[in-house]
Write a structure and sequence with these properties.
Strand order of the largest sheet: 6-5-4-3-2-1-7
Number of helices: 10
Order of helices and strands: EHEEEEEEHHHEEHEEHEEEEHEHEEHH
Number of strands: 18
Radius of gyration: 20 Å
Distance between the termini: 16 Å
Helix content: 25-40%
Shape: globular
Structural class: alpha+beta
């Protein structure tokens, strides 16, 4: 019998609709000879399975649903929520409680990688991982003086939600009078805001996943944007070039691949992750600076990971099957 797979999407952040597009991509990529797949949209307390034309409430006691032809259960949850509760450990904790295997890293890894400031400071223990300086601001706490932020981090700098994605709420701050409006904008997305020193160089991103006991990296993508930075319009409104494989020296590509595998192993990740970097310095001898780790990266046909899988010569349905079967043993 085919395994029954829930493609869990939606979520409670500004990335809800982006997540549903990823779910549609994953649904199209799955091996239909092995799996029957249904999208489950989680929005607040409304959890709904898409079963043909029916929209069936999920019973959260066991993550089942009842349709006109009876009760249905799942064997596996493929999580593609960008943001809370699927990328911050909350949903993973629920699935652990009910004994449902899932596609991502565990609760601790998800919570840590979702909190950019905590992740950066955890990885500072590893001198081979280069990370920009940053300051954390929490809602309700004393606000640092703008002049102190600028003295430490310089201008321009980035202001971003500490927990969030798809560049919602991110501002490239160029002048002192832009700082407070940027912090307020970021606070609309997260109760914590990170002000970060800017790094100027070549932006790249590298995906990887675990196949058996081996961490496999995909070809690296170079990002060239018409915008001030790789913001929402650049990502989703075709205002960027995404070049796979990246136009970087072979030795640099090897070092990026090795570092990506190393970080994946340090954290104890599972499933597909994507790590974004900025390369600075002389070509071929660049410093590899970590920007962000995405543990539920976009999965539309045009997203980075499907591009990279195609460039690798692998079939994405096989990658997804590796992830599912790796948790079913």
């Amino acid at each position: 019998m085919k395994r029954q797979i829930a493609i869990v999407a939606g979520g409670n952040s500004s990335e809800h609709d982006v997540s549903l597009r990823s779910a549609a991509g994953i649904l199209s990529f799955m091996d239909s000879e092995k799996y029957d797949c249904y999208v489950v949209d989680i929005t607040g307390s409304h959890w709904t399975a898409h079963y043909g034309d029916e929209r069936c409430p999920i019973d959260r006691n066991d993550f089942s649903f009842t349709a006109s032809d009876g009760r249905h259960t799942f064997n596996f949850a493929y999580i593609t929520i960008h943001g809370t509760p699927g990328e911050d450990g909350i949903l993973q904790g629920y699935f652990d409680l009910i004994g449902m295997p899932y596609s991502t890293s565990d609760v601790l890894v998800e919570a840590l990688t979702f909190n950019k400031f905590a992740l950066n400071n955890f990885l500072r223990a590893y001198p081979e991982v280069h990370i920009a300086d940053s300051v954390l601001i929490r809602r309700g706490q004393a606000m640092p003086a703008v002049k102190d932020l600028i003295t430490r981090l310089g201008l321009p700098c980035f202001v971003k939600p500490n927990a969030g994605g798809s560049s919602f709420g991110v501002t490239k701050v160029k002048t002192a009078d832009q700082m407070m409006p940027a912090i307020e904008k970021a606070m609309n997305e997260s109760d914590e805001v990170m002000v970060e020193k800017i790094m100027v160089g070549t932006e790249i991103t590298c995906g990887c996943y675990k196949r058996g006991q081996e961490v496999v990296t995909f070809p690296i993508t170079e990002v060239v944007t018409e915008q001030e930075f790789f913001d929402y319009e650049a990502k989703y409104l075709n205002k960027s070039q995404e070049i796979t494989p990246a136009r970087i020296a072979p030795e640099t590509a090897r070092r990026v691949s090795d570092l990506t595998k190393h970080i994946y192993t340090i954290l104890g990740c599972y499933g597909i992750i994507r790590i974004d970097y900025i390369l600075t310095g002389e070509k071929g001898y660049e410093t590899i600076n970590l920007l962000e780790i995405n543990t539920t990266p976009g999965m539309t046909a045009a997203s980075f990971i499907p591009q990279q899988v195609r460039a690798s010569g692998m079939a994405i349905k096989d990658v997804l099957s590796d992830i599912i079967e790796g948790k079913m043993v």
